[in-house]
Amino acid sequence: MINVVKAWTPPRLTSSHLDSTTSPSTNHAELHLFFQLSLHTLFADATGRFPVRSMSGSEYLLITVFDGYIHIEPMRTRHHLDYIAAFERTRDFFAARGHHPIFVRTDNEVSHQLDTFFRSRRIEQHRVPPGVHRANSAERHIRTFKNHFIATISTASPDFPLGLFDKLIPQTEICLAHLMPCHSRPHLSAYEGIFGAPFDFLAHPIGPLGTAVLIHEKPANRGTFSPHGVEGFYLGPALDHYRSVLCYATRTAAIRVTTQR
């Protein structure tokens, strides 16, 4: 006699299923449910104050993790208005790429205004158990980001102005996304999992951040016997332009788009 086994269908996700104080049991159904819940959760936490205030006024960074992708948003302060603005930009970032987290996991230092913001966006908030920071995977990813970012700054030019640290974040995020796997599809990088396609290194070549460079001056913008380049620092790829990069021009204290030669 052949035994017919009915396929298990995971139950509908509800807030009662996401109890951060409960560990998944060895039951396959519960393990599958726990995994599915984590794929719908945005883990979030903020770093401590950066030693130097950026030229744009940022001193803190909001780190969020969704499906293995680490996203970073600069913040001026830890005031609730800056938190809300950073979470709004984070939500827009993932939504623009077709991802809509339905849960957010934070620490216990969350203001009433931020609670209201999450409810207005139909995102259920879940705080970690008191004193159990490891329940929020953003804690570990903050360490990953900080180690990578410290290494990046340490290899920049000695003359690189640290007030531009927040301008290094976009390329840092791209690099981290290629080093981390996508949680739902581990055979893909976190970048491809979120963006739906590999990063085009041919159209957007990248180089060492903070490198001292000469920014080419076009003939129409320079005098007859003027130098053909001005000093500056490399900040990352100009993603809105083909084979172009962002550079900080030291003489004018401006960020410029220039071609990569």
Task: Walk me through the structure.
By secondary structure, the protein is α+β, with helices and mostly antiparallel strands. It has 2 domains: 23-198, Nucleotidyltransferase, domain 5 (2-Layer Sandwich), CATH 3.30.420; 200-261. 28% of the residues lie in helices and 21% in strands. The protein contains 6 helices and 9 strands. The strands form 2 sheets. A 5-stranded mixed sheet has the order 3-2-1-4-5, with helices on both faces. It has a 4-stranded antiparallel sheet with strand order 6-7-8-9, with no helix packed on it. Helix 3 links the parallel strand 4 and strand 5 (124-127). The longest helix has 18 residues, at 137-154. It is globular. The N and C termini lie far apart (73 Å). The model is unreliable at 1-13, 15-26 and 31-35 (pLDDT under 50).
Helix content: 25-40%
Q: CATH homologous superfamily of the largest domain - what is it?
A: Ribonuclease H-like superfamily/Ribonuclease H
The tally of strands reads 9
In round numbers, the mean pLDDT is 84
Order of helices and strands: HEEEHEHEHHHEEEE
Instruction: Write down the CATH class of the largest domain.
Output: Alpha Beta
The biggest beta sheet, please? Answer: 5 strands, mixed
Supply the number of structural domains: 2
Query: What are the low-pLDDT stretches, counting only 5+ consecutive residues below 50?
Result: 1-13, 15-26, 31-35
Task: Name the structural class.
Answer: alpha+beta
Which overall shape is indicated by the principal axes computed on the Cα atoms? Answer: globular
Helical run tally: 6
Strand share of the residues?
Answer: 15-25%
- Cα separation of the termini: 73 Å
Task: Please identify, by name, the CATH architecture of the largest domain.
Answer: 2-Layer Sandwich
Radius of gyration: 22 Å
